[in-house]
Amino acid sequence: MSLPVIMLLMAVTGVLAVWGAGELAAGRELRRGITVRSRLDGEAPPDGPLVRLDRRLRGTELGRLLARRIAAAGLAMRVSTFLLAIVAGGLAAIALIGRLLGPVFGVAAAVAVGFVFFGYLRRREERRKEEFIAQLPELARVLSNAAQAGLSLRTAIALAADELDDPARTELRRAADGLRLGESLEAVLGDLAGRLPSRELGVLVSTLLVAARSGGSLVTALRSIAGTLEDRKEIRREVRTILGQAVVSNWAVGILGVAGIAMINQIEPGALREMSTHLTGQLMLAAGAGLFTTSLLVIRRITRIDV
Fold first, then answer.
1. Which of 44, 82, 239, 287 has its Cβ near the most Cβ atoms within 10 Å?
2. Is residue 307 part of a domain?
3. Omega of the bond prior to 167 within 30 degrees of 0, cis?
4. If you average pLDDT over every residue of the chain, what do you get?
5. Taking a C-beta distance cutoff of 8 angstroms, is the pair 194, 201 a contact?
């Protein structure tokens, strides 16, 4: 087995090891919480290092933002686990790519690892948000039927959490738990709209808040919103179908860039390492990377249409 394959396997193993350690720590914390709740004296056992690191990260603004994004993506992962996986992947990329192509490419690969992780997180957020938006018409109908039956809005939200599938079930249960713990309806719905920002959810939340404050025909409003949301869902589906070719082109441009660099090094071994040691070569590589990045951003901006 060649050295690059061995180093690649070691890099993948390192990332999986960090991920597994985070999952093990999460399981231990859950077990610790169950043990604490079952103790009569309420004395908690000492926290582990990952727990303390996660607590410190969540105390910062960036840590809270990242924790919010992880929750919005539906990932059962700690902030510390996510960041440690990025660090492990970046170090592995520096060791592997830096050895094969040169130190400059190793650093670029480490930066690319960070973009890949956050891109995966953003993709999970968008997919989960799209799934939730697709459930909004049914959610509006469930709330409308509950309101027509004379149930309060708090009870209607808990009922909808039992009726709908994920991700609406998870989000609505979180909202219902917040209401049971004494949070205001405005705070709970605002937090829901912040985790899954969209125009459709914003309209539904605004309608519920206005009805809760000033009254009005909530049943009629929710039924009207359900029909409108159903029409918007069909329009969004048509737009995604039309833009499918452009999205594939976006991925093709990125793959062609990476494949072109690998082909140059395959045709002329050591060419990229030699280029990265001279100023002219560094400028050419930087210009090429900038052009590819600009093309990806332009195609992505063209294919982003708000409905």
1. 82
2. no
3. yes
4. 77
5. no
Structural domain includes residue 19: no
Q: Examine residue 154 and state whether it is found in any structural domain, yes or no.
A: yes
Residue 196 lies in a domain: yes
What is the CA angle 125-128-133, rounded to 5?
Answer: 120
**Rg of the chain's alpha carbons, rounded to an integer?**
25
Q: What is the pTM of this model?
A: 0.66
Sign of CA dihedral 209, 213, 214, 219: positive
Cα 143 to Cα 152: distance, rounded to the nearest angstrom: 10
Q: Which residues contact 70 (CB under 8 A, 6 or more apart)?
A: 77, 79, 82, 121
Q: What backbone phi and psi angles, to 5 degrees, belong to 54?
A: -65, -40
- Using CB atoms within 10 Å of the CB of residue 39, give its burial: 0 to 12 exposed, 13 to 18 middle, 19+ buried: exposed
Q: Where are the beta strands (DSSP E) in the chain?
A: none
Judged against a pLDDT cut of 50, whether residue 44 lies above it is answered with no
Exposure string of 219-231, with b = 16+ CB inside 10 Å and e = fewer, is bebbbebbebbee
Structural domain boundaries, residue 210: 130-237
Residue in the block written with tokens 């205001």: 184
When pLDDT is cut at 50, 70 and 90, the band that residue 27 belongs to is low
Q: Report how many domains make up the chain.
A: 1
CATH of the domain at 213: 1.20.81
